[in-house]
């Protein structure tokens, strides 16, 4: 997290303690795929834990599930994030467009969301746990199997890539607040649901700088496209 400029309010000035306001760009569902894969992984781990409790094997050690994967803690956070993020992705064309000042082109839609800060932190911790070099071999195999299902949308589809996607998503949701993000958040919150938002020149510049930061976090600088009419 970068240091907040002095004299400016924090990102949660109108947010309850423990909540974080974030800007989420519509990437046509890309962030949801690794998050759904993670949900399936955590559901499997929860089932394995239940099986070990009901029928502990004789002569074998129960599966050691590290925190925060154990006890369905991470699972609950991931499911809350999926519920919040899903409506921001693959939105219907023409629904709540984000337009340049002259209206000549359209940016990828962006939504201001308020999320539990703990859920974002848990997502980052989960990615770190799944990427740990000493992760239990059975869990590592489970992660790799679900990562392969992402092969249709990503050049790589192994455990490393899935962990990277999850870590980058956590980083995107934990993007340090700036004057730009505060300006955009205030503007987006002032627009009725489903209505178009025509950016001012200052908001357009703020959007460009924010999109650039998001690009480097999520896509390593490949670009969040602007859609022309």
Brief descriptors of the model:
6 strands, 7 helices, two-stranded antiparallel ribbon, alpha+beta, 229 residues
What does this structure look like?
By secondary structure, the chain is α+β, with helices and mostly antiparallel strands. Helix content is 46%, strand content 10%. β2 and β3 form a beta hairpin. It starts with 18 loop residues before the first strand and ends with a strand.
**Rg result:** 20 Å
Order of helices and strands: EHHEEEHHHHEHE
Beta fraction: 5-15%
For the termini, the CA-CA separation is 36 Å
- Summarize the main sheet: 4 strands, mixed
Number of strands: 6
How many helical stretches? 7
Strand order of the largest sheet: 5-2-3-6
Percent helix, as a range, is 40-55%
CA-based shape = elongated
Poorly predicted ranges: 1-13
- What is the mean pLDDT? 87
Structural class by helix and strand composition: alpha+beta
Briefly say what this structure is.
The protein is built from 7 helices and 6 strands; from the N terminus they run βααβββααααβαβ.
Fold topology:
Layout: E1 19-25, H1 32-54, H2 73-85, E2 98-99, E3 105-107, E4 110-116, H3 117-130, H4 137-147, H5 159-173, H6 179-189, E5 197-198, H7 201-218, E6 226-228
Parallel strand pairs: 2-5
Antiparallel strand pairs: 1-4, 2-3, 3-6
């Amino acid at each position: 997290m970068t240091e907040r400029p002095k004299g400016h309010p924090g990102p949660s000035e109108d947010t309850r303690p423990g909540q974080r306001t974030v800007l989420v760009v519509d990437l046509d569902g890309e962030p949801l795929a690794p998050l759904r894969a993670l949900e399936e992984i955590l559901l499997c781990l929860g089932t394995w834990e239940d099986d070990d409790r009901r029928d502990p094997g004789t002569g074998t050690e129960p599966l050691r599930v590290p925190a925060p994967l154990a006890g369905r803690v991470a699972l609950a956070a991931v499911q809350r994030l999926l519920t919040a993020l899903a409506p921001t992705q693959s939105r219907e064309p023409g629904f709540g467009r984000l337009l340049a000042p002259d209206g000549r082109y359209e940016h990828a839609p962006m939504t201001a969301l308020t999320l539990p800060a703990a859920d974002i932190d848990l997502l980052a911790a989960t990615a770190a746990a799944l990427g740990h070099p000493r992760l239990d071999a059975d869990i590592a195999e489970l992660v790799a199997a679900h990562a392969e299902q992402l092969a249709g949308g990503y050049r790589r589809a192994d455990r490393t890539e899935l962990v990277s996607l999850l870590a980058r998503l956590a980083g995107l949701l934990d993007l340090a607040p700036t004057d730009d993000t505060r300006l955009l958040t205030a503007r987006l919150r002032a627009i009725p649901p489903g209505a178009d938002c025509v950016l001012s020149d200052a908001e357009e510049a703020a959007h460009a700088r924010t999109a650039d930061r998001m690009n480097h976090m999520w896509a390593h600088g490949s670009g969040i496209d602007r859609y022309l009419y």
